[in-house]
């Protein structure tokens, strides 16, 4: 610095000056980083907005009442897929909720620290981390075929739903567990003090109190199920029959919206595949938006109704 | 009622045990099928894991290219995605005003909720043509279709973003407020607080999120299958004499090969067994990632939910970063004489501006 003697005198900072300089540098970087963080956040929002707007712009004109309720030979309508999506989700939730509820109650209320509890936690976390394609193949092995030979349930809605149950059991379990844990201990103690048994405490106090968060968890899980593909391709089957799709028989094969989108891309035997794909993708994104925004509204409403009455 | 209590307790315990049963049977059944590749079809395990030729019909099953594809795509996605995700988390917890925070919450939730097949669809119609155009015009000629590991990495980056962000937000917002206040009271700016206090304190939580994001990326199937081109025999990385570079031609990953090959595999065949071996490999990798994330989370200092342990030494993202820096130093050092004068020359310029502003 001090090589050029003449300038060194001018630029050598006094102590106070140096403090100002350091402070200014810190402030400068603070501003740079703040700006960057704003930029990153805006970019993420832009990506989401782009995805949604792009799909809406491309597929909105394909959508019609016919498109979401009818079926035809060219499979250019999505009626069966819409029906199957909701059917499989309902079936899966019907099976999944009792099991994960009971398991969550066990973990929160009954379990002591021990080998069994540790094993359950370890299994839950590991199962939550298993890729869905592997669970799809597992479902094929166990539910569709008889360990790889012959058929058990065949490609069917039930097999798909059971695979979804396996996929979402750990998620729902941890959501329920969190919800039950958040119930204040005083309520449990008060219930016991009134002479209620443990089972009575659970059914009369814990579940009603935690109900809003339980419902939120269920809706969140259902929203996740809408988007599931990899686990269903080899379990729910890749097609629906044109005539018999509107039946409640769980043993018929049925593809969901996501599977249809995959089939359109992979096989391309539909004449106007690009158009149908755009419509299906748009339908998926609209469902997703409805579930997520509807969830916020519903959670607020239920919360007001239930806690408003009890407190 | 005594017996009701007993029965309900047993029922609850059985439901909890069901999870264990499911996980165990996944491992056992996938493992049993995977094992056949080596016993029934006499494939050498070394050949399976270290040979890059995947042609089950010719009795050649080498999964190296597939495994490498999965790992490279995941690492690329995490390298780009982790800083961005942490940035978003910092924005939400530290920088954003109230309205922006309330706006970001549903944005992140929606990004989580978008089906992977939609990401794949968008990758196919947007990312792939973009890469083809950019790379071809940059190189001057027709070199790539755009399908390949780069497109997969870009799609995966966006997909793991909400995972890491959510966990990072959780971590940062549960840090004791005293940390922030103490740092700010010492006169630190917001960035100094973030860099010197919040990130080190939250490093284990953030790293947990990163590892879980890796788990999501490596298990992702549909989105990747749309954009990777699925050429099972093309290695994702090429090597020149000096440095490796990422291949711009179609490659494949474990998950994509599982998805595409399983439709054609008939039960007693090498193809079928080899697919299960691939699946088991993936199962092991993802379980390892879950294990690693648990291990990191258990070393967390500011984790008020599990226990108040302060015993474990904190070794998080910054130690890793410092170690990497010391490893990279010999590589970067030759560049320093060129870069340093440049910084020195420009520093008075922006400092003068900053000082003037500060006064």
3D architecture notes:
The complex is a heterodimer of chains A (311) and B (359). With 311 residues, chain A is mostly helical. The N terminus of chain A is likely disordered. In chain B, the strands form 2 sheets. Chain B has a two-stranded antiparallel sheet. In chain B, strands 3-4 form a two-stranded antiparallel ribbon. The termini of chain B are far apart. At the A-B interface, helix 2, helix 4, helix 5, helix 6 and helix 7 of A face helix 1, helix 3, helix 4, helix 5 and helix 8 of B.
Short description:
Chain A is an all-alpha fold and 311 residues long. Helix content of chain A is 75%, strand content 0%.
Number of H/I helices of chain B: 13
Tally of discrete structural domains of chain A: 2
Question: What's the CATH H-level homologous superfamily of chain B?
Answer: MetI-like
Give the number of domains of chain B.
1
Name the biggest interface. A-B, 93 and 90 residues
* Secondary-structure content class of chain A: mainly alpha
* Subunit organisation of the chains: heterodimer
* Overall geometry of chain A: globular
Q: What is the overall pLDDT average of chain A? A: 84
Compressed to H and E, one letter per element, the order of chain B equals: HHEEHHHHHHHEEHHHH
So, the CATH homologous superfamily of the largest domain in chain A?
Answer: MetI-like
The proportion of residues forming helix of chain A, as a percent range, comes to: over 70%
CATH class of the largest domain in chain A: Mainly Alpha
What descriptive keywords fit this protein?
heterodimer, A: 311 residues, mainly alpha, MetI-like fold, 2 domains, 12 helices, globular, disordered N terminus, B: 359 residues, two-stranded antiparallel sheet, two-stranded antiparallel ribbon, 13 helices, 4 strands, 3% strand
Question: What are the SSEs and their pairings?
Answer:
The complex is a heterodimer of chains A (311) and B (359).
Chain A (H helix, E strand, L loop, with lengths): L4 H7 L3 H45 L5 H5 L9 H32 L4 H15 L2 H13 L12 H25 L3 H9 L4 H29 L3 H4 L23 H10 L6 H38 L1
Chain B lengths: L1 H38 L5 H6 L3 E2 L4 E2 L2 H32 L2 H16 L2 H24 L9 H26 L2 H9 L4 H30 L2 H6 L9 E3 L4 E3 L7 H9 L7 H29 L18 H16 L3 H23 L1
Antiparallel strand pairs in B: 1-2, 3-4
């Amino acid at each position: 610095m001090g090589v050029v003697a003449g300038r060194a005198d001018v630029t050598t900072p006094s102590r106070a000056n140096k403090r100002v300089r350091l402070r200014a540098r810190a402030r400068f970087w603070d501003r740079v980083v703040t700006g960057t963080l704003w930029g990153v956040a805006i970019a993420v929002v832009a990506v989401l907005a782009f995805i949604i707007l792009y799909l809406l712009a491309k597929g909105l004109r394909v959508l019609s009442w016919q498109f979401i309720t009818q079926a035809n030979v060219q499979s250019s309508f999505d009626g069966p897929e819409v029906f199957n999506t909701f059917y499989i989700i309902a079936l899966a939730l019907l099976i999944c909720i009792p099991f994960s509820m009971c398991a969550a109650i066990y973990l929160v209320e009954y379990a002591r620290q021990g080998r069994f509890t540790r094993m359950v936690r370890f299994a839950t976390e590991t199962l939550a981390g298993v890729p869905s394609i592997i669970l799809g193949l597992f479902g094929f092995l166990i539910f569709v075929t008889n360990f790889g030979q012959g058929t058990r349930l065949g490609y069917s809605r039930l097999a798909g739903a059971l695979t979804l149950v396996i996929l979402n059991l750990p998620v729902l379990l941890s959501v329920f567990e969190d919800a039950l844990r958040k119930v204040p201990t005083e309520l449990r103690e008060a219930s016991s003090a009134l002479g209620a048994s443990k089972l009575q405490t659970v059914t009369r106090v814990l579940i009603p109190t935690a109900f809003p968060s339980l419902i939120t968890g269920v809706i969140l899980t259902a929203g996740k199920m809408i988007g599931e593909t990899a686990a269903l391709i080899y379990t729910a089957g890749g097609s629906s029959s044109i005539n018999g799709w509107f039946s409640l028989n769980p043993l018929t094969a049925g593809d969901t919206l996501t599977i249809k989108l995959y089939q359109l891309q992979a096989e391309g035997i539909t004449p106007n595949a690009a158009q149908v794909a755009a419509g299906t993708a748009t339908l998926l994104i609209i469902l997703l938006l409805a579930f997520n925004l509807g969830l916020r509204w519903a959670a607020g409403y239920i919360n007001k109704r239930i806690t408003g009455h009890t407190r | 009622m005594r017996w009701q209590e007993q029965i309900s307790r047993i029922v609850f315990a059985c439901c909890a045990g069901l999870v264990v049963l499911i996980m165990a049977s996944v491992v056992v059944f996938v493992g049993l099928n995977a094992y056949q590749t080596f016993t029934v079809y006499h494939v050498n395990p070394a050949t399976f894991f270290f040979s890059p030729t995947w042609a089950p019909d010719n009795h050649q099953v080498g999964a190296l290219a597939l495994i490498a594809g999965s790992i490279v795509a995941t690492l690329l996605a995490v390298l780009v995605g982790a800083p961005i995700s942490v940035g978003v988390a910092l924005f939400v917890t530290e920088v954003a005003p109230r309205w922006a925070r309330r706006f970001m919450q549903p944005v992140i939730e929606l990004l989580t909720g978008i089906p992977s097949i939609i990401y794949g669809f968008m990758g196919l119609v947007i990312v792939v043509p973009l890469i083809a155009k950019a790379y071809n015009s940059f190189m001057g000629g027709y070199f790539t279709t755009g399908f390949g590991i780069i497109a997969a990495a870009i799609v995966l980056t966006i997909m793991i973003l909400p995972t890491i962000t959510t966990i990072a937000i959780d971590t940062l917002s549960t840090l004791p407020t005293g940390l922030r206040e103490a740092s700010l009271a010492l006169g630190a700016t917001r960035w100094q607080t973030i860099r010197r206090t919040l990130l080190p304190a939250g490093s284990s939580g953030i790293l947990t999120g990163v590892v879980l994001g890796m788990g999501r990326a490596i298990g992702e199937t549909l989105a990747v299958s749309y954009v990777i081109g699925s050429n099972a025999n093309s290695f994702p990385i090429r090597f020149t004499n000096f440095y490796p570079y990422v291949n711009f031609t179609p490659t494949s990953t474990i998950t994509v090969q599982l998805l595409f090959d399983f439709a054609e595999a008939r039960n007693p065949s090498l193809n079928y067994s080899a697919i299960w071996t691939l699946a088991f490999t993936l199962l092991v990798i993802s379980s390892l990632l879950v294990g690693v994330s648990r291990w990191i989370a258990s070393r967390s200092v500011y984790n008020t939910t599990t226990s108040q342990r302060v015993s474990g030494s904190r070794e998080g993202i910054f130690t890793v970063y410092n170690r990497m820096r010391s490893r990279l130093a010999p590589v970067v050092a030759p560049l320093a004489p060129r870069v340093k004068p440049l910084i020195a020359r420009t520093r008075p310029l922006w400092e003068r501006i900053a000082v003037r502003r500060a006064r």
